[in-house]
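Can you please make up a whole protein chain along with its backbone structure tokens because I've never seen that pairing?
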Amino acid sequence: MLSRAARPAIRAAASAPRVVAGVPSTAATYATLREIEDRLKSIRNIEKITNTMKIVASTKLNRAQRAMDDSRKYGSTSNEVYSSAETAAIPGDKKTLLIVCSSDKGLCGGIHSGISRTVRRMFAENPNSYDLVIIGEKCKSQLSRTNAKDIQFSIAGIGKDIPTFADAQAIVDQILLLPNEYSEVKILYNKFINATSYEPTSIEAFSVDAITQSPNFSAFEVEEELVPHLREYGLANSLYWALAEGHACEISARRNAMDNASKNAGEMIQKYQILFNRTRQAVITGELVEIITGATASEDM
């Protein structure tokens, strides 16, 4: 049997390992608290950035929609002429020139990848039937992986601001310098449906031969030497329409993407704040348990 004097020392020795073992756990919890706090700070900064980008995109969207409405007048006028003349592409072995309208900027959802998927689907349905002219670095980087040999040239720098008719005319001037002849030209762009939706759509433009051979073209009484100028002007009109409408879709998609990002950041902040509070409470509880345990052991000694 142990004496009464030895029992307090034995109890103190038995409780000592528990106190020492609790120290590493508390230190690890402090590190976890710092990590959660740093993550919360990072997410809050991201939320500020996405909110700012959403406000900027909302401001730009009104201007982009007004420019889109103005550009539709240009494009619809050319389409009415071709529709009245019953213009159609001349069947043959010539390829179709496909002008892909995108931009150089990202952070706007899947607006560029949707155009690229449409192009790949068109090539899958009719292989070796298209040559590509790509406007914007985003679609160029995506299509270069699968259709690099079909790209005639690409243009960057369009879409930093609202596209103008001068931008469209400059692109058409380069297209007319291509050595190949094409049966028709298709302009692929994102059609603006509303502020939350859009879809890839194409506008047709025709060759000089297709215009002159139209059944009702003689009703317009256009001199033959002016037909190339008419075709060039009509192509510029349609391209301006496509660029302006695609720009409005991009701004709208960026605003929606930043809105979703801000909401996701807010949800993450709430979750991490709850985790931080629970972890901090666990640290406080652990320290209290250690203090009480140490005090109890001291009283018993």
Summary: The helical segments are 6-85, 111-125, 137-147, 165-175, 208-212, 227-300. Residues 120 and 146 are 8 Å apart (CA to CA). The chain has two domains: 35-47+260-295, 56-214+222-259. Strands lie at 96-101, 130-135, 151-155, 184-194, 197-206.
